[in-house]
Design brief:
Blueprint: E1 4-10, H1 14-25, E2 34-40, H2 48-52, E3 58-61, H3 67-77, E4 82-86, E5 91-92, H4 96-105, E6 111-120, H5 129-137, H6 141-148, E7 155-159, H7 160-166, H8 176-186, E8 190-202, H9 207-225, H10 231-243, H11 246-255, H12 261-285
Parallel strand pairs: 1-2, 1-4, 2-3, 6-8
Antiparallel strand pairs: 4-7, 5-8, 6-7
Helix pairs in contact: 5-12, 9-12, 10-12, 11-12
Protein name: Glycosyl transferase
InterPro entries: Glyco_trans_2-like (IPR001173), Glycosyltransf_2 (IPR050834), Nucleotide-diphossugar_trans (IPR029044)
Keywords: Transferase
Length: about 300
């Protein structure tokens, strides 16, 4: 049996997928020890041409919309006893799989790994404002794992037995990483943050894309909040707290080691303020209407 199956959900991102697959082909781990499974989730044109440029990569299809169902299809078709998940628009550090392999080999059963997610900067000497912002706030993986009990599915690894123990990822209607993490904790599975397990994710190309990301997250949070009979009051208070949070956010930016220099910090603070305002207004609007969720980005 193969050691590791890398599972990648895909929807209409052929160029990003090509870069992702190239990063996996450059892994320090022996290529004979892992397979790559791409699951297309209804792209307007399936990425067969991209797959053909990367020998040994398998392409599957899942028609039910959402990255969760696509990942489940990948698991069902995977041959490895370790499952590693990465998104199509991410690039893996050359030691990503080696870190997963060595860490799980030295961990007891029932341990799930989540790693660091850094922002990919095409021009590191002249980062864009959104890149500066997302470098600080985009993917706070250690916080998610150690405080909130879940790991983002764009950088996640586990033994197949532990996946089977928790069960499949949920559909598009909820945040599948948070839901899976909640069920994992209930099944006495422990999350471990591994700083050396690094993937890179591109920053959003525009404020419109960044707002769309937060709209999706807020819609998920709204659905989760509905189980509380007093959710409207709590939701209103949370919206006001978000509106009042830029001061604390500015302190986070000024003390972050993810960005350098006053220019980058000013940029990050400006974008953070706009995003917090958008989040608060969106949350308040969802007191009166039902949320909509779509993927990807």
């Amino acid at each position: 049996m193969l050691a590791i199956s890398v599972i990648i959900p895909h929807l209409n991102q052929p160029d990003a997928l090509d870069a992702c697959l190239s990063s996996l082909e450059a892994q320090s781990l022996d290529r004979d020890l892992f397979e790559i499974v791409v699951v297309d989730n209804g792209s307007s044109a399936p990425p067969a041409d991209v797959i053909s440029r990367h020998p040994g990569v398998r392409l599957l299809e899942e028609k039910r919309p959402g990255p969760g169902p696509a990942r489940n299809t990948g698991v069902a078709g995977a041959l490895g006893h370790i499952l590693a998940f990465i998104d199509a628009d991410c690039r893996a550090h050359p030691d990503w799989l080696a870190s997963i392999s060595s860490t799980l080999a030295s961990s007891p059963p029932g341990v799930v790994l989540g790693g660091d997610v850094r922002i990919w900067r095409p021009n590191a000497n002249r980062p864009r404002a959104i890149e500066a912002y997302e470098s600080v706030f985009g993917y706070r993986s250690q916080l998610y794992i150690e405080k909130h009990g879940y790991a983002g599915t764009l950088n996640l690894a586990m033994h197949r037995e532990d996946f089977d123990r928790v069960g499949p990822f949920a559909g598009i209607e909820i945040a599948e990483d948070m839901d899976w993490g909640k069920r994992a904790c209930a099944a006495n599975v422990q999350f471990r943050y591994v700083a050396e397990m690094v993937v890179f994710h591109p920053a959003r190309a525009s404020m419109t894309e960044l707002y769309a990301k937060w709209d999706r997250h807020i819609a998920h949070y709204r659905r989760m909040a509905e189980s509380d009979p007093a959710w409207r009051v709590r939701w209103f208070v949370r919206a006001l707290l978000v509106l009042a949070s830029p001061l604390a956010g500015a302190l986070t930016v000024m003390t972050s080691d993810r960005i350098e220099g006053l220019r980058e910090r000013r940029q990050a603070i400006a974008v953070m303020g706009a995003v917090r305002w958008h989040r608060a207004l969106t949350m308040l609007s969802l007191l009166r209407r039902e949320p909509r969720v779509a993927w990807n980005r």
